[in-house]
Amino acid sequence: MIQQRANFDWMLKELADGVPQVQQIVVLSADGLRIARHGGDPDAADRLAAACAGLQSLAGAVAAEIPYSEGKMRLVVIEVDGGLFYLMAAGTGAYLAVLADDTVDAGLMGTRMRDLVIRIGAHLTSPPRHDGQTV
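== Dynein regulation protein LC7 ==
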């Protein structure tokens, strides 16, 4: 559940300002619902959140095949023509997704995302849903 939404929003903006190549930031629940966003179009953020739900599930299945792994997805990076996509676990049932152009410093992006997750991790927790209702 997101608390102090205004403070959360400025933290997303701070990530975008700290890494100028950021195009869009989306915080989503494990079931693909957008919790918050910065930059970009709201409809695009919803589509990205829905796609991320499948991606985090797939990454978790791959992680489960790694010996001595707990089977949890921590970070997925996808490089495509024109940019990079980052998806990071960010609290129980919540994820941080970032789209950036292809000139982004990958190390800086990973560090800034991790710092953001640490700072607001408690605010990025999304409770599980049953039959469309928060438990």
